[in-house]
Write a structure and sequence with these properties.
single chain, Rossmann fold, seven-stranded mixed beta sheet, 37% helix
């Protein structure tokens, strides 16, 4: 899994945790929004684990959908993450159906995460009629004759966009309510407290970018496109992909099956299909027919499943993940934006997320693309596709040298080896192996990898864990010595294609390396600071061309002076640095001057923004870490690096060249390019 994806998830959970810790009695409801496929269940578990680590009296009730066995799916995910040590502090329990047994339901008190299918708490249920759930909550909070330690209860509403008021009458028991959804229902002008945008999830390769099919394409045309993609999927990704057809929910369904779908499938007889409906399912796959119906869904999820086409009604909208699905064709007329986005999420999961970095460039592109016909919500602000301008010969003339950080085990660092070889089998100071393991799991991936390489026995693992502080300190000392740990990579260029999401920070640009596929000349940037710096670079190019000699002008015209935004999607222009783990800096802009020199820009701002909650301490630590990275990278690559920081309306610019840093003004920066 890419570090960018891990960082995105981690940072979102950090924000959510801080908001909860500062929540007031007057505002007890928090909303977390993240696209389907971005790891919402994983982040939910991380969030609960952090709160429980900080407060052992914290208890979570996770209210989730009853349909599609979603509650059991969540519980199994939480249980696995707990048992494998990823989030060892959560201890989940699934509240089972109220129809089992003749007596009252019993809910044990020794767990700290309770997964509740929403339909279990309704007027006709034992859980409500007999007061079982209320008594359970009262027991946890100490509000009964039972003398249990008082617990702090939190309610998580999973898939909160599905209207439910089942538990609203019990809000007094909860310190806060946290809503999780890809499509939360918000009041007008209300924003989620924490959000992972579609663009962010796409850039981190958590989900696929969407390519809209031609609205005039028939189902036959879409299936022909799928056949071409299918072969590439199998050969490059080792995954049998899946084509999903969504049909009407009521009386039109049978008509659509008879007149549209089945005739189209007859022309593709080699494709195995299954039809999921309210009564069960139908299929042309003889092997699948032999399986019990309850096992069909699990079989369909598998990357090696023989089924290539799945036809469904609304039953697939929530709670059924099929990472191998890459295409969606909608026949039904959907009126719900929420539903459409949920269904879109079924084909946007990355099928090779965990080992994505091992794929070829072509395979990565394939794994990160979804094709959809007929259902993209018009209100959805879909990414705008961009492509490199061929006139400037960017691929040929615009070469950038990235850098990466090598771990001690890759460089065979003698100092680290000496430390590990001399570890003493001292008396263990940890009270238990469990505490050692929990502490070990909190370390970054590089430290854990170092341990697994060193430890060929249980005894060696315990010795490593006992000296964890010393090892971590020595590791960070090595890794932050960029002269030793940083190496250059092969030259790269901008990707042939990328994208951006339109926003208010737009600028008209018709003289840089990108053009939009819709031929519009407006481009959007991630912040006001980025937009303002883009204006600076735009003016430099225009002024340079306008004031130079004819000969120099010809050089400019033939792409000797170019610049462009480093749109993150598909970009390999990145520079690794260390900050509690190895991260990648994707600089905002890259410019090539008239002498062929490469200039790298990472734009920052200290101005307060209503749309951004910035932790000033964390922000400063990150900027300083990037500065150290750029300082050494300027020496190793020969590029010149800049960190322009916007403060009010003025720029404070740090420039790194040949391993040396200096502060310059905006005017000094501009003059350095305009002088002959």
């Amino acid at each position: 899994m890419l570090q960018e994806a891990k960082d995105l998830q981690k940072n979102a959970v950090t924000k959510l945790t801080k908001i909860l810790q500062n929540v007031s009695d007057s505002r007890k409801e928090i909303t977390f929004k993240a696209p389907t496929g971005s790891g919402k269940t994983y982040m939910m578990a991380d969030f609960m684990n952090r709160i429980i680590c900080a407060d052992r009296n914290a208890v979570f009730i996770v209210s989730t959908l009853s349909k599609s066995n979603l509650a059991a799916q969540n519980f199994n995910s939480f249980k696995e993450l707990s048992e494998n040590g990823t989030f060892a502090d959560i201890n989940p329990f699934l509240i089972n159906s109220d129809s089992s047994g003749e007596g009252s339901l019993f809910i044990p008190l020794e767990y700290n995460v309770y997964v509740l299918p929403r339909d279990l708490y309704k007027d006709s249920s034992k859980l409500k009629k007999e007061g079982t759930f209320v008594n359970f909550l009262s027991s946890l909070t100490g509000d009964t004759f039972m003398k249990n330690p008082q617990k702090k209860l939190y309610l998580i509403k999973d898939e909160c966009h599905i209207a439910t008021s089942n538990l609203d009458e019990l809000k007094e028991y909860f310190c806060a309510v946290i809503n999780f959804s890809a499509t939360p229902k918000l009041s007008r002008k209300q924003e989620p407290d924490v959000e992972i945008s579609n663009a962010e999830a796409e850039n981190a390769k958590l989900i696929k970018k969407v390519e809209a099919g031609n609205e005039n394409d028939s189902l036959e045309c879409a299936l022909m496109k799928f056949e071409k993609i299918r072969s590439d999927y199998i050969n490059q990704l080792d995954v049998n992909p899946c084509f999903i057809i969504q049909i009407s929910n009521k009386e039109k369904a049978e008509e659509e099956l008879k007149n549209t779908i089945m005739p189209a499938l007859q022309n593709q007889q080699e494709l195995k299909w299954v039809y999921i409906n309210d009564k069960g399912g139908e299929t042309n796959d003889s092997g699948l027919k032999k399986l019990p119906l309850v096992k069909w869904k699990d079989y369909l999820k598998g990357k090696a499943s023989s089924i290539s086409v799945i036809i469904f009604k609304m039953v697939i909208s929530e709670g059924w993940d099929i990472p191998r699905a890459c295409m969606l064709y909608q026949i039904r007329d959907s009126k719900s934006k929420q539903l459409d986005e949920q269904v879109m999420g079924r084909v946007r999961r990355n099928p090779r997320l965990l080992d994505f970095e091992n794929l070829s460039d072509e395979a990565k592109q394939l794994a990160c693309t979804a094709w959809i016909w007929g259902m993209i919500p018009k209100e959805e602000n879909l990414p705008k596709q961009v492509r490199l301008c061929t006139d400037y010969k960017v691929e040929e003339n615009f070469r950038i040298t990235p850098v990466k950080i090598l771990s001690p085990q890759k460089t065979k660092n003698p100092d680290m080896k000496k430390i590990l070889d001399n570890l003493k089998d001292d008396y263990l100071t940890h009270p238990s192996i469990f505490e050692s393991y929990i502490n070990f799991q909190k370390q970054d991936n590089e430290i854990q990898s170092l341990c697994y390489e060193y430890s060929d026995s249980y005894k060696k693992w315990t010795v490593f864990a006992e000296h964890l502080g010393e090892i971590k300190s020595s590791y960070e000392k090595y890794i932050c010595d960029y002269e030793k740990s940083m190496v250059t990579c092969d030259e790269v260029c901008f990707p042939l294609e990328s994208c951006f999401v339109e926003n208010q920070n737009s600028l008209t640009l018709d003289d840089w390396i990108w053009y939009r596929k819709d031929f519009c000349t407006d481009f959007s940037f991630d912040s006001e600071a980025e937009k303002k710096w883009a204006e600076v670079l735009k003016d430099i190019r225009s002024s340079s061309i306008g004031t130079c000699t004819k000969k120099q002008s010809e050089l400019f015209e033939t792409s000797r002076f170019l610049w462009g935004k480093n749109f993150p999607l598909n970009s390999q222009i990145k520079f690794e640095y260390y900050l509690d783990g190895i991260h990648s800096s994707y600089p905002d802009f890259v410019m090539k001057d008239k002498n062929g020199k490469i200039h790298i820009f990472e734009v920052k701002s200290v101005n307060k923004s209503s749309s951004q909650n910035i932790d000033e301490e964390e922000y400063e630590k990150k900027v300083n870490a990037i500065k150290e990275c750029y300082k050494e990278a300027s020496k190793k690559t020969g590029h010149i690096f800049y960190i322009p920081v916007l403060e009010k309306s003025s720029w404070q610019i740090t420039r790194f060249s040949d391993g040396k840093g200096e502060n310059i003004t905006k005017d000094e920066f501009i003059k350095s390019f305009l002088k002959s």
